[in-house]
Amino acid sequence: MTYLELRGVSAAYQDVNIVSNIDIDVDEREIVAVAGTNGAGKSTIIKTIMGLMPRCRGTMTFLGHNLFDYAAEDRVRLGISYVPQVANVFSSLTVLENLKVVEGVRDFPGRSTEIFDLFPVLAQRRRARASSLSGGERQQLALARALMSKPSLIVMDEPTAALSPALATQVFTMVRQLPDIGVAVLIVEQRARQALAVSTRGYILDSGNIVMAGPAADLLADTRMADLYLGRE
Ligand SMILES: Nc1ncnc2c1ncn2[C@@H]1O[C@H](COP(=O)(O)OP(=O)(O)OP(=O)(O)O)[C@@H](O)[C@H]1O
Ligand SMILES: [Mg+2]
What we know:
alpha/beta; Rossmann fold; 2 domains; 6-stranded mixed β-sheet; 10 strands
């Protein structure tokens, strides 16, 4: 079943087109990666999906709903959750408070208990301030917050950007498990190889254009593409 479908989507800041004529699909239980370097337009795509770009056009549906009919907060209510690239947790609040803030907004009593079952590390540190967490734990908390609203799709903006290779691997391991709990994932990443390795489908973004798309395994196996876009192992 098709969850998210983008057709001919473009987005601009003022008069400058940042992404052009993008097609992206995310189906049920899929992990889809959009790989691109700094400034390629990855965050812009995510912001467009979440309703945070003032100037965009094209066709964008989620579970058959025209997303352009929904304001940003209503897109979350439709079942899309967003993990921003930066500032994705409240540093001065504890782990538990970070989850409870969302619980209060979404009114899913007891959801934080379910989430702690999924993230034992966070459960252990529930009374710690978010500012005291390691980078990897912080990304776990950001993901946990996004799961609080029981989304069917999570969009993640470079969750491993600030992390060491070892911690990045931990994050990808967590991402890989999301379809098992009924959550589809759209992830944008500079760590192209690792992102594609956990994905079913992949897109390569270059200067705001999708230059290659297909099954993630095919993109990884394409040596010409790998040389151009995937960097060293
Ligand atoms: N608020 C803004 N006003 C004008 N231009 C912007 C704005 N935000 C981003 N841009 C430009 O849009 C382009 C794409 O930015 P975007 O943040 O989508 O890239 P990105 O792929 O997420 O990069 P990174 O990997 O560094 O996060 C860049 O050239 C950037 O300078
Ligand atoms: Mg970005």
